[in-house]
Design brief:
This protein is mainly alpha-helical and 261 residues long. The chain contains nine helices and three strands; from the N terminus they run ααααααααβββα. The radius of gyration is 21 Å and the shape is elongated. The protein starts with 7 loop residues before the first helix and ends in a 12-residue tail after the last helix. The relative contact order is 0.17.
Length: 261
């Protein structure tokens, strides 16, 4: 179950186990293990995303402004990784049905090349054909949100390889009653200014541009909290569309013997 209470990931786990039954696709190469581990990765990344979101945007007595940047970096990682884990899970399932349309799980080079680019059609056409035939709704969904996921991936890449991802924002001005007093910080105490959550966090729309040509206008940034909301909706709707794709395109026997939840 995901942090928002939706259980599409749990449903997908059940369907994957059904697909691996010998009366359906079988489990050659133990693809089911790879699929389930990847779905666990999706769940854990989404959970960590929510945990770190709270540390940045909600009042917490042990989180300072100085710590926000690392939580921002973690959130960017979690979103980028959740999408990649989902693609890996679906590639595992897809190759069990149509090996020529997906990347092999038994080849080290092929494993390294499993990326969201396969889904949105930026990889070679043979790989793309598998996604189009078995996951057409999900593929279209990914294409429709390519700008969002590129923004996340590029900002994550910059925080991983270049520098801090904290480009500014605004802090909250609404502490709970007696929040600072309970910390032993009277009015005008300087530490009050360091223990405060964010109201808004800015991230650049073009983070990989050189600093001397990177636009400085506010219009060239977007709000991380908006990106997070859109990404959570993207994942939830994506999982639902995946379930629909499997039920329509895979031709599975949904009631084989020997399958447990």
């Amino acid at each position: 179950m995901l942090p928002d209470g939706s259980n599409y990931d749990d449903v997908l786990r059940v369907i994957a186990r059904i697909a691996a039954n010998e009366k359906n696709l079988g489990n050659t190469g133990n693809w089911l293990f790879s699929c389930l581990r990847a779905l666990e990765g999706v769940q854990q990344r989404m959970t960590s995303l929510e945990e770190n979101r709270r540390l940045v945007y909600e009042w917490h007595p042990q989180v300072s402004i100085a710590g926000h940047e690392r939580h921002i970096a973690i959130m960017l990682f979690c979103m980028d990784s959740a999408f990649e884990c989902l693609v890996f899970a679906l590639n595992a399932l897809g190759q069990a049905h149509t090996p020529q349309g997906f990347r092999s799980l038994s080849d080290e080079k092929a494993l390294k090349n499993i990326t969201p680019k396969d889904v949105i059609g930026l990889a070679n056409s043979q790989i793309g054909s598998g996604w189009l035939s078995l996951f057409p709704r999900f593929q279209q969904h990914c294409q429709n949100h390519a700008t969002l996921n590129t923004l996340i991936a590029e900002n994550h890449d910059v925080t991983k390889h270049r520098h801090s991802g904290f480009d500014g924002g605004t802090i909250r001005q609404d502490p709970p009653p007696c929040f600072y007093e309970n910390l032993g910080l009277p009015k005008n105490h300087p530490r009050r200014n360091s223990i405060v959550p964010m109201q808004e966090v800015l991230i650049p729309l073009h983070p990989k541009l050189p600093e001397d040509v990177k636009p400085k206008a506010l219009s060239e940034c977007t709000y991380l909290e908006k990106v997070i909301d859109e990404f959570c909706e993207f994942i939830n709707q994506g999982l639902l569309l995946v379930i629909k794709d499997i039920l329509v395109c895979f031709g599975l026997n949904l009631n084989p013997e020997g399958v447990s939840n």
